[in-house]
Amino acid sequence: MLERARAVLDGEEAWVVGGAVRDEALGRPVIDLDIACREPEQAARRFSKQARGALFPLSERHGAWRVALEDGRTVDFTPLRAGIEDDLATRDFTINAVAMPLAGGEPVDPFGGLADLEQGILRAVRPTIFEDDPLRLLRAVRLEDELGFRLDEQTAELARRHAALVDRPAGERILAELERLSAGGYERLDQLGLLTPLGGSLERLRGLGETTPEMRPVAVFGRELKRLPVSNELRRYGRALLRAEPPGDLSARSVYRFRRDTEPWAVEAARFARGGEELERAIEEARAADPAEPLLRGDELGLPPGPEIGRLLALVEEELAAGTISTREEALELVRRETASGAAREVTDS
């Protein structure tokens, strides 16, 4: 990736900037490359042709272009309108404001980013970074979380002072940062006053113990999660967790009904609802005992298509789970009794 970029920009002024320099210095894998050059569109087109990557404008307003490679890596080409130090002055944090000549050579580090990298410090390049781009409020916490760094006190104070701006970016950009946070990252958002403006609270999260990346935003935002452009899958997952209530007992019927309301996320829902390890074990045992095939199919009931078929099959499934029936014949007899009972009720009501 780097060698191909050097070949494409041979003889031209070009710099590797931002996270690629940072990650290389930290010994982390370099997934995305950010190159500042004079003619980013032309460079991106040449690179995409050689690398057979997908080319698209990253920012029409700023003139940046991205090439997405088949292996998931990306190469961004951004405009270098003045000198490299002027470019670095527009960056967010000092650790991201270090540049290396693409052709090789000594780094340009006007803000002491390499020293901050050694000390694990996240420091603002200038006092207006959060006003210039409020998404940097979330990025600051995410970088702390991922790198194990800490905001210096002045930058932390800047974040607190501008916390009200945190909900200004597009929902997609906010969500992309939140999805990468650990539970400790959400704690840090709260410490900096960034969580409340987003509609979040740590009350539920703090009582959950170990959590998954999908569970954390549901715990933090609850029903306010709908304010963010989450996927349909996460939306369904969130609804299942938020409606979960631990059963009054661990009978087979109670566990079945809990699973009916929360699968395929019943174990996570049990944890979210603080149902205890016994409920989680009961769910796992019930899953292991699930039959490979249903006792009855809808076309075996002899009824016209409609919701009544679904109701009867659900009844058979529950009674099978509860242990009151175990064979196809018993299931058919249950359906006959239920159908007869329903018919009798209709006659009485009429």
Characterise the protein shown here.
There is one protein chain. This protein has a 6-stranded mixed β-sheet with strand order 3-4-5-2-1-6. Strands 7-8 form a two-stranded parallel sheet. The radius of gyration is 29 Å and the shape is elongated. The mean pLDDT is 92. By secondary structure, the protein is of the alpha/beta class. It contains 17 helices and 8 strands. The N and C termini lie far apart (78 Å). Helix 7 (135-147) crosses helix 10 (183-191) and helix 13 crosses helix 16 (307-322). Helix content is 48%, strand content 10%.
The ordered H/E elements are HEHEHEEEHEHEHHEHHHHHHHHHH
Give helix % range.
Answer: 40-55%
Strand arrangement across the biggest beta sheet: 3-4-5-2-1-6
Query: What is the oligomeric state here?
Result: single chain
Alpha-beta classification: alpha/beta
Content of β-strand: 5-15%
Instruction: Calculate Rg over CA atoms.
Output: 29 Å
Number of helices: 17
Main β-sheet, in a few words?
A: 6 strands, mixed
Key phrases:
single chain; 350 residues; alpha/beta; six-stranded mixed sheet; 8 strands; elongated
